[in-house]
Amino acid sequence: MPFLGVDIGGTNIDVVLLEDSGEFRYLRSFKTSDKISEIPEIIKDYERRYGVERSCLGIAAWIKAGKIVKAPNLPTIPEFDGLMENDANCFAFYAAKKFAFGNMLGITVGTGIGAGIVIDGKIYRGKGLAGEIGHVVVGNTEDSRTCVCGGKDHLEAYFGGWAIKKETGMEAKELFKLDESKIYEMKGFKDFCRAIGFAIMLMDFEAVIIGGGIGNRLDIARLKEEVGNYLMPEFNPEIASIKDELAVAKGAALLAKEGS
Ligand SMILES: [Zn+2]
What we know:
This protein is of the alpha/beta class. The protein has 10 helices and 12 strands.
């Protein structure tokens, strides 16, 4: 029987099916702002239609003991009592399976910035919120910013999609097309790379895999060079990206199937 994976991000909702053959089948995308409150019905409908065994929501939210405690990038928190996982954790799980990494960090940069940690092939959650790299304080007394979560001077307030738009007046995806160099000149890009460097020094990961609508457009050579500024030369994880907008939904479907 197939499994359903749903990615609820700040902008879009994507639905994929993991078929008995092991192949993923893309089903549909919705605008989060239009459809988030209808998520339980949408999922039930797909479950009936495809005879789904189990579904998993990969959601841009902080989850503790199966309950959402905060979702700063979502317009509302959907009522759902099934399996839920933080979206960046789903991304990391998918990346670990795809590339067969046992110990790795997955980072998504989209509307917000999230990270998932995989240790020995399983998601590491700590007390539930491990990997909230978007909300580390990067601090800047001259340009202090309030994060969507309510905190001050968090990484996401300098390099998340919403912050890039606020700073440059342009959607990040447009900026990549028009003048990519503007992205790399941002203070937020340096902050982002420093946060990755600290995470690598702490955990000595095999790999750091980047995704999300903004993350998957970043130039890996530039990223490696800047992250390298914060690493001892003995630390040399593989740094790569996944250019697949469905990676979170696919990870959620894998989690529905395999658990973790
Ligand atoms: Zn924050």
